[in-house]
Amino acid sequence: MRMDNNRTRRRDMQFAAFAASAAIVTFFLVYWFIQIQDTREMLKMAYG
Amino acid sequence: MNAAVPIPWFRTIVVVTVVALGLTFAFSGLRIYVWEALLPFFEWMETTWFGVIGQTWGAAFAVVEAFHLLAMALLGGAVLVSDARLLGLAFTELPARQVLDPAHRLFVLALVLALATGVFMACGVAIKIYYLPVFWFKMLALATGVLFVFFIKRPLLHDGIEQLNPWLVRLVAIASVMLWFTVAASGRWIGFSG
């Protein structure tokens, strides 16, 4: 019973870490991609 | 007496709920409502002692900012050292715990210093930062970073990294680097805005 609990706790920890990390990486990749695109567009407008 | 029964999949449920609530908040009118409601608080910040000193005594602001930047450098160093070890890029000759524990102690110290100096600086330029979208993005990244470190990363690595999936460890390290890079980059962005 205790071993099952420990295994579930460890799997929960790993799944939570995977979900949080994947969400963070995806979110910040999209954010920085949009920022870089916006900057490129502004530079194009300013200097052609 | 019944012993407390731990909720199965507690952390996963919390993570999914926080992400769902965050997305709902970001893409709904609630975000604008909260932003508008916070204006009086930012106006009050400028009237505090910190705000008055920050606005009228440039040297004090500069000294505090120097400590803020030093704290960020220390924090960035601690993050890079621990995440480089997790990614297997550096300090691989040392056991992970021997690198991660001192780096975490340094991280906590740097975080406390950065938060303390950051509050002072925010009071000095409260109205300016209130209207800067990048300030709010920095606060989002900072809050996410703190939650990520204390609720996800530390508990995950507590029992050692040997029995964890190496790809999970690498993913956590990459997420950590991205988070703190965003905190630092958006912080500098505030300095060059307005």
Which terms summarize this structure?
heterodimer, A: 48 residues, mainly alpha, 1 helix, 96% helix, B: 194 residues, 0% strand
Please mark out the parts of chain B with pLDDT under 50 across 5 or more consecutive residues, or reply none.
none
- Total separate domains of chain B: 1
Give helix and strand order of chain A, one letter per element, not per position. Answer: H
Order of helices and strands of chain B, N to C?
A: HHHHHHHHH
Q: Identify the most extensive interface between protein chains.
A: A-B, 22 and 29 residues
State the end-to-end CA separation of chain A.
Answer: 68 Å
Rg of chain A, Å, rounded: 21 Å
Tertiary shape of chain B: globular
Q: Using DSSP, what is the number of strands of chain B?
A: 0
Helix content class of chain A: over 70%
Question: How much is the average pLDDT of chain A?
Answer: 90
- What is the beta-strand fraction of chain A? under 5%
Helix/strand-derived category of chain B reads mainly alpha
Measured as a percent range, the helix fraction of chain B is: over 70%
Largest sheet of chain A: none
Write the layout of secondary structure elements.
The complex is a heterodimer of chains A (48) and B (194).
Chain A: H1 2-47
Chain B: H1 10-26, H2 30-37, H3 39-47, H4 49-56, H5 58-87, H6 96-124, H7 126-130, H8 133-157, H9 166-191
Textual characterization of the structure:
The complex is a heterodimer of chains A (about 50) and B (about 190). By secondary structure, chain A is mainly α. Helices cover about 95% and strands about 0% of the residues of chain A. Chain A has one domain. Chain A has one helix spanning about 1-45. The longest helix of chain A has about 45 residues, at about 1-45. The relative contact order of chain A is 0.07. Chain B is built from nine helices and no strands. The longest helix of chain B is centred in the middle third of the chain and has 30 residues, at about 60-85. Chain B has one domain (about 20-190). Chain B is mostly helical and about 190 residues long. In chain B, helix 4 packs across helix 6. Chain B starts with 9 loop residues before the first helix and ends with a helix. The radius of gyration of chain B is 19 Å and the shape is globular. The interface of A and B includes residues 15, 19, 20, 22 and 25 of A.
